[in-house]
């Protein structure tokens, strides 16, 4: 980087003997991007892939560079803004002052800052701030590198609050009380033991030798206390002895001193609790200590309870459920316990509640759901919250599959009754997996694994139901794991294929474009359609990579056809994008890069999205779609009408066309309802200024009906099957009629 920096300085006329002008500095900062881009690849990658947010400002205090962690946390739009826009208003002045000081040459190693995130929340960052210098030592900007300590801060606040609550209890005790560490140093002392606030504060971290010397007491007093401390630790028992202590007034008081050792689970001494009792008031003091012991025991009981129960619902958590299930299995294997069954419940579409109404409403719904579940079960049963919206039930005793399915049906029915939550009436359903009790299970984890498999089968069957586990389900789950492994290999080894199905103008019969369709040439199972593997791709996170591969492949292929057939009419290209892909922060950048790489005209590209993308109602999603639309790319809603109704959102998003799902086209000649729905969609689209594409046209009568309704475009086996890249040139050169019945070649 040094040669480029020197060259840039010389080009601007900057050297050690020539102080830079403001204009020259501005030009220098404008070249900062290029200079930083010249860093070694490992340096750039180390910064870019760091899990901690890192960004760089220029001398004007604007964010000039940021790594992925910063963009994911604060949003890409923060790059280019003043650094003071990154934090709450009340902290902006402090951050501005720190930035000025760093630009003046100072560096700060541990500064806690609050940064605003892209979702509107705040995160506490333990930050390092230091100057970015060129090889001549001049400060170019300010480097910020942060570590998210929000969770640690919250945990520390909880622990501090607990400690303060315990200290309030101990300070209220009228009897003298002190706590020592394993080295006989004071860690706590209440006012009844030492009334003087200054001495009580001074003594923390010191031992009795220092205390007695400080107060002028006989050194033998400290030696005697040390001997009893060591004896109590050695015998591991509470030790008591009498002690005479001179008063400031010259008198003498008699005390009963007690030391109680406290050990860790590993058997090591953790602390020693010391009590000082005025023997004359022994009864009153002992009563107070008894109350203290009760309070401490209650606090410990609460801590043990909290460690084994869910904080939100109060139900047993995963640890306690596994413990009880393990005991049940042990009794079953010994032939001593009753029959049992395990139910695994997952709330259907719970994420939509959190996304639309907020997490407080979602939490309140989980509490109400847990209460209703608990009321529906027996006292001998255990219902637990594993986390999120997942619950488990241990039925004990259970007479068999019949008892378990009856409970599942009852739970499903009772949970479908509307919930009144925070002023909202919410209706939910659950998918339930059932594992009948089997003594052959080796652990609770194995039971939960199979119950989870059965639950996902219930979801796959349409949700709001239950499935009883069988061995075939486990085999299928293993097959899915194998399929995911094979799919990752397919991406690396070039087993994926793209077919192209023509899209035809219904009115004229002319081909106007193609839809790119992904296929997988599996080495053992043959050619697989997306239905065979896209679910696995979604779950594994491969869907984003597949979407981008199809886009790049199809754009490059269409460009090849355009060069080979310059006389062919302009054609559009439709490519599917999943909702998960669209949520990726770099989707716009990646799309633009692929278009630039392949030279494909953005105005000829159509991105097809499902209705669920609109239903997220996310500001980020809307902004992403608007940026893509401004690029010139068209946006189509695929399989319209099959999901939740999204008619109210259509005017809020930059949508160009609706694709009517093939299921409605298939039934439009036999079902009056489907025919009316198709007519309604076409009419509504026309009123909104949108085009309509009909999928799955297989009969001439369907085509005629769609033409009469004014449908714009269509695709389906009647018009053409999906074609290989090798078939397309002949299709385009031969009148666009490959695989099309003779009577339709002059349609329109």
UniProtKB/TrEMBL annotation:
- Location of the GGDEF domain: 296-469
> Is Transferase among this UniProt entry's keywords?
no
Q: What positions does the domain EAL occupy?
A: 479-727
Q: Which SUPFAM superfamilies match?
A: EAL domain-like, Nucleotide cyclase, PYP-like sensor domain (PAS domain)
Q: Which InterPro entries match?
A: Biofilm_reg_signaling (IPR052155), EAL_dom (IPR001633), EAL_sf (IPR035919), GGDEF_dom (IPR000160), Nucleotide_cyclase (IPR029787), PAC (IPR001610), PAS (IPR000014), PAS-like_dom_sf (IPR035965)
Question: Locate the PAS domain: which residues?
Answer: 41-104, 164-230
List the coiled-coil residues: 282-309
- Keywords of the record: Coiled coil
UniProt cross-references to PANTHER family, sorted A to Z: BIOFILM ARCHITECTURE MAINTENANCE PROTEIN MBAA, DIGUANYLATE CYCLASE DGCP
Q: What is this protein called?
A: GGDEF domain-containing protein
């Amino acid at each position: 980087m040094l040669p480029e920096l020197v060259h840039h300085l010389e080009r601007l006329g900057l050297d050690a003997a020539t102080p830079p002008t403001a204009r020259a500095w501005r030009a220098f900062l404008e070249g900062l991007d290029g200079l930083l881009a010249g860093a070694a690849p490992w340096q750039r990658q180390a910064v870019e892939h760091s899990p901690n947010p890192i960004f760089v400002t220029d001398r004007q205090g604007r964010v000039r560079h940021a790594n992925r962690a910063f963009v994911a946390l604060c949003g890409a739009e923060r790059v280019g803004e003043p650094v003071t826009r990154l934090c709450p208003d009340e902290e902006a002045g402090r951050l501005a002052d720190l930035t000025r000081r760093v630009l003046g040459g100072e560096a700060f190693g541990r500064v806690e800052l609050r940064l605003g995130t892209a979702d509107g929340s705040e995160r506490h960052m333990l930050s390092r701030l230091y100057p970015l210098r060129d090889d001549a030592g001049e400060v170019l900007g300010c480097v910020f590198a942060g570590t998210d300590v929000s969770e640690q801060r919250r945990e520390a606040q909880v622990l501090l609050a607990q400690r303060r609550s315990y200290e309030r209890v101990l300070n209220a005790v009228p009897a003298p009380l002190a706590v020592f560490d394993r080295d006989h140093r004071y860690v706590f002392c209440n006012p009844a033991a030492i009334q003087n606030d200054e001495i009580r504060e001074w003594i923390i971290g010191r031992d009795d030798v220092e205390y007695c010397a400080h107060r002028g007491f006989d050194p033998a007093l400290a030696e005697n206390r040390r001997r009893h401390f060591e004896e109590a630790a050695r015998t591991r028992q509470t030790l008591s002895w009498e002690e005479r202590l001179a008063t400031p007034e010259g008198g003498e008081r008699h005390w009963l001193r007690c030391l109680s050792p406290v050990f860790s689970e590993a058997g090591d001494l953790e602390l020693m609790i010391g009590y000082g009792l005025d023997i004359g008031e022994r009864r009153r003091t002992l009563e107070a200590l008894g109350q203290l012991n009760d309070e401490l025991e209650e606090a410990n009981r609460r801590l043990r309870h909290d460690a084994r129960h869910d904080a939100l619902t109060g139900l047993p958590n995963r640890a306690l459920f596994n413990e009880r299930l393990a005991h049940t299995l042990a009794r079953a294997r010994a032939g001593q316990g009753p029959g049992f069954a395990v139910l695994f419940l997952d709330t259907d579409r719970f994420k939509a509640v959190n996304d639309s109404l907020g997490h407080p409403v979602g939490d309140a719904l989980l509490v109400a759901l847990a209460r209703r579940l608990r009321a529906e079960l027996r006292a001998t049963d255990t219902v637990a919250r594993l986390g999120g919206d997942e619950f488990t039930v241990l039925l004990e005793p259970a007479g068999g599959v019949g008892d378990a399915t009856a409970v599942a049906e009852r739970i499903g029915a009772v949970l479908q009754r509307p919930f009144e939550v925070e002023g909202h009436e919410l209706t939910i359903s659950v998918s339930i997996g059932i594992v009948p009790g089997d003594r052959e299970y080796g652990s609770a984890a194995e039971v939960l694994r199979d119950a989870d498999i059965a639950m996902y089968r219930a979801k796959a069957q349409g949700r709001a139901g239950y499935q009883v586990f069988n061995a075939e389900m486990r085999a299928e789950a293993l097959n899915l794991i194998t399929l995911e492994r094979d799919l990752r290999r397919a991406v690396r080894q070039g087993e994926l294929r793209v077919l192209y199905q023509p899209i035809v103008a219904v009115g004229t019969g002319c081909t106007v474009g193609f839809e790119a369709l992904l296929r997988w040439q599996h080495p053992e199972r043959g050619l697989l359609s997306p239905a065979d593997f896209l679910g696995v791709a979604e779950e594994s996170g491969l869907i984003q990579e597949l979407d981008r591969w199809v886009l790049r492949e199809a754009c490059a292929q269409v460009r090849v056809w355009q060069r080979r057939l310059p006389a062919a009419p302009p054609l559009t290209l439709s490519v599917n994008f999943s909702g998960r892909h669209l949520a990726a922060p770099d989707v716009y950048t990646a799309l633009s890069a692929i278009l630039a790489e392949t030279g494909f005209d953005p105005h000829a590209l159509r991105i097809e999205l499902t209705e669920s993308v609109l239903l997220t109602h996310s500001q980020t999603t809307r902004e992403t779609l608007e940026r893509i639309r401004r690029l010139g790319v068209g946006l189509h809603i695929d399989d319209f009408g099959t999901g939740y109704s999204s008619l109210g959102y259509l005017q809020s998003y930059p949508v160009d066309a609706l694709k009517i799902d093939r299921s409605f086209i298939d039934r439009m000649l036999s079902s009056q309802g489907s025919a009316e729905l198709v007519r309604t969609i076409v009419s509504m689209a026309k009123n909104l200024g949108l085009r309509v594409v009909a999928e799955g046209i297989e009969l001439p009568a369907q085509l005629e009906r769609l033409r009469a309704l004014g449908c714009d475009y269509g695709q389906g086996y009647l018009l053409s099957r999906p074609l290989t890249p090798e078939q397309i040139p002949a299709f385009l050169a031969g009148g666009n009629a490959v695989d099309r019945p003779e009577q339709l070649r002059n349609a329109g």
